[in-house]
Each structure stands twice: as structure tokens, then as C-alpha cells.
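User: Hi! Is it possible to get a structure for several chains at once, not just one? Here's what I have:
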Amino acid sequence: MNFAETVLDYSVNIALVILSISFLLTIIRIVRGPTLPDRILGLDMLVAAAIGFIAAIGIKTGFILYIDIAIALGLVGFLATVAFARFVLSRGKTEDDILREVRTAAEDARKKANEERKRIEKARRQEERLNR
Amino acid sequence: MISDVIMLLTAAFVLIGSFFALVASIGLLRLPDLYSRMHAASKAGTMGSGLLLIALAVHAADAGVFARALAGVVFFLLTAPISAHLLAKAAYSVGYRLGPNAVRDEMADHTPAERD
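Assistant: Yes, the chains can be modeled jointly so their relative placement is included. Here is the combined structure:
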């Protein structure tokens, strides 16, 4: 094993480690990502890192066929991102909007329940008075 | 000797490409809001995967593989801005706003047109 082969071997291994760290950081963003578009962006980045990973594995093992898999993965990733963007557009509201809707709905329900309780209480009292 | 040069070139491409991928993911984690994270993911991320594909092509040293790798890189370079732009446009028109320390919102007077 001469010098160049050793250098290539080491650098591919280092690259695999770096790409794994990159995967992990992207996954942290996907898990934490406060909004849906952040997570979609994270998935897009994950596809890009996976393509790089596949290429590095291809260099390490010497299987050239991996390049077709990488291209196919890129195609799928692009289509997924476009579909998710359309989904964000067709959902039409942000997480804050959804939270606000839920809060107002809960507030309304609470008010209605209070009124109902008061009405029942009043009716019961009236009935007691009539009985007496 | 020529194969040694090819191997060293491949090693350089692999290291630079993975470094770009790392920078992209650090940017994705550290930048403050969606629109600035998009810069990291769609520029540095594409650069990283493209460089790694080129490294694979250089390592194979074959015309067919080189053409396929080049086609893949061109495809990524074409599609990454399109998907980032689509996502940014969808997110902005739905109502996701810029981060708290953004200086200027050029789209502010273009009120979301297609909100339904």
C-alpha cells in the first residue's frame, strides 16, 4: 500500500465520520425545528448529505453503480421537497395560527360550559323555591 | 504515477465535499430563522454532495461514469434553487415571518396574494 492509497483510505474514512456528524446535526434540526418548513428544509439537507454519503461509500468499496442510486435519490428528494412546499401552501396556516385557533375554540367552549352550569344552577334553585 | 495523482485528487475532493456538508448542517442548526437557514442548506449542501459525486467520478476515471456524475451535479445545481425558492415562497405567502433580528423585509409591501 503506497502513500496515495493510504491518504485516500484515511480521507474517505474521515469524510464518512464528518458526514455522520452532519447527519446528526441535521436530525437535531429536524427534531427541534420549530415549524414545518424548517423540518422540510432539514429533510432536503438530509437527502443532500445522503447523496454525499453514498458517493463516499462508492469510493470506499469501488462499486461505481452507486452513482445511479445517488442520482435517483436526488430526484426523489427534489420531488419530495416540491410536494411538501405545495402542502405548506395548501394548508394555508402557520403553527401559530393553528395554536391561536385551538386556544380561541377552547376559550369559547369554556365560556359556553360556564353559562350552561349557571343556567342549570339557576333552574335548580328555582325548582327548590317552588317546592318550598 | 498518474493513478497516484488521481487518488490524491479524489481524497481532496472527498474532504472538501464533506467539509461543505458539515458547514451546511452547522448553518442549518445555528442560523436564526427559516429564510437564513435556507442559504446554508441549499448552497453549501448542494456544493458538498456535488463535490462528493465529482470525487466518485474522478476515482472511477471512466468517461461514462464521469458523464453521469456531471449530469447528476448539473441536476442538483438546477433543482436546489428551485426547491428552495418554492419552499420559501410557500412559507412566506402562508405567513411565516422573518426572525426577530432580521433587518429588512423586501416582500413586506407584496402582501400575500394567493392565501387560499
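The radius of gyration of chain A is 29 Å. Chain A touches chain B through 58 residues (CB under 8 Å).

User: Great, thank you!
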